[in-house]
Structure formats: C-alpha cells, structure tokens
Predict the structure.
Amino acid sequence: MKVCILLGGASTERNVSIFTGLAVAEALRAKNHQVELLDPATPLEEMDKFKNNLESVSIETQEFDKLAKMNDQYFLRQIEWIKEEKFDIVFNALHGGNGENGVISAVLQIAEIPFTGSESMASAIAMDKYRTKKLLNSIGILTAPFELFNTPTESPRSLSFPIVIKPNDGGSSVGLSIVKEKKNILHETKEALKYSNEYIIEKFIPGRELTVPIISEETYPLVEIVSKSGIYDYESKYGNDMNEYILSPKMDDSVTEKIQISAKKVWNILGMKNYGRIDFRLNEKNEAFCLEANTLPGMTSSSLLPKSAKYSGLEFPDLIEKIILDVLT
C-alpha cells in the first residue's frame, strides 16, 4: 500500500505527533508498504527540510511559544498533492489541535480520502472535555464534578479542594494543574488559558488511573498508570522512567468488566471508530469516573495502546496494519 502519514501539526502536541508518525512509518516500512511523511504546518516546498530536521526533535521538551506562531494552513493545498500521488490511505498521526478536533478529518472526508481514526464529528466532541462530560452524564457514565470557565478565576464556584485545572480542548496534559489545598488559583487558571479559550476545573478523584484501549470495536487489556511524581502531566508522560505501566492490573473480574463496558458506552455515544483510548479514575469504592476519550492516542514507544496490544500478542507493525485494514475493508 501507499500511505501518507500526517505528523507534526501546529498543536501543543507537535513533537509527540512527530514521534508517533516516525514510529508508524517505521512499522509500515517493516511490512513493505510505501510511506510518505506530510506536516500540515509546513509548505510542500519546505517538506524535505522538515524531514531532514526530524532527528533533532525531542519528545521530552516542546517550545510552546514557537507553536503560537504556527498553523495548519497548508493542508488545504496539500490535499491536491495527496490526490495526485494516489495514496491508498492517510494515516492521521497528528495529536491535538486541528489534527484531532475534527477539522483535518472533515477536509479528508469532503475530499473522499480514506483516513485512520474517528470521523470529524466524533473527534470534535471528544476533544471538547466539557461537552463530552455533559454527554456522558446524560447516559449515566460517571465523571468528576466539573465547572467550565473562559476567564481567570481565584477559586471554583462550588467545588471543594483538591481540584484539577486543565484546558478544555488540550491534550498530553499540557497546562494541567492539580491543586490539593485551598488557595488562590489565579496563576493556574491563567496557565490553562494559554492553551485553550476555555478551561475546566473538576474535583480530583483519588484512586487508580486506568485506560481502556479499543481497536476495531474490540476492547484490549486495561493499563494502569502509576506516576512516580504523583501527577501524570506532560513531563511525567514523556520523561524517562517517570511512570510504571501495569498491563492487565489486578482487580476483580467484575470491576474490569464494568470498566470495559463503560469504555464501550463512551466509544459508542461519541461515535468513535477505528482505534482510540478511554481514560478512567477508579476510587476506593470501585467507582469508575471517565476522564476523557482519546480519538488519536499516542503511538510512541511509551504509548499505552501499543503496550496493551503487544500484551495481547499484537506486535506494533501488525497493530498499525490492522488499523489501516480496518478502514479499507
């Protein structure tokens, strides 16, 4: 097959996306597929320069100030190139921003170009944490109590501490803060607004952090994340040896089944397709609170969905090929 991999983009997760895209490219080449890399934030005439500089990209750090000056404006012109090159499929390895909020997938849908991941409507809803929570609550899925803001605030309206503050449509936990004791939170709310026009304050749920990968409508083994720093933020996610990942963590089978059923309900109500990941917090009463749905989860060496797939016997190249074939068949 001839595959165009979208990577990079102008979101705060640009570097993570680059690592995902490179990992996907390596996997596809191992399966003897033809691969081309494409960054929506780089003009076509500069794409070779972009590719030549990929080795200098660091996943541990991201210069967020530079990203504010970037955008994905080149993608509309790149669509014609994708058509001319007659790719069999576009593998959407973008994270956050227009790559994950439904904008780029909508353009691909209109152009009738096959692509991996969920379609535009599901992507747009899942990227909006507030609207997702409202929708999930309407079908009985637990979420942490939450409030939405679009200006800095000194305190929550009604929530008691500890609390979590995070951008409403961000990813990779960029701009996230956990505030354990009552204090003026003006600084933290201003920080969240650097990455989104809105932010959520929600009640912190103590307990275990779990994720449910779903591939081709099938739930895969749960992964438990144990953060050594106590907060699973950007630095923790992509720093070396910052977390412990437990595949198929020990718990009653009934609890595991309940979480998997909840994950499929989230998947279905959002209209997700192809592959994704649903995140939860499990409290001491074994109540599972949905944190968010990821329509384009990471595919780096430290990413959770590939870990779960490998635990099930699905090696990374086979996983990537399975995702593609799920779209084309």
Observations:
- The first helix runs from residue 14 to 30.
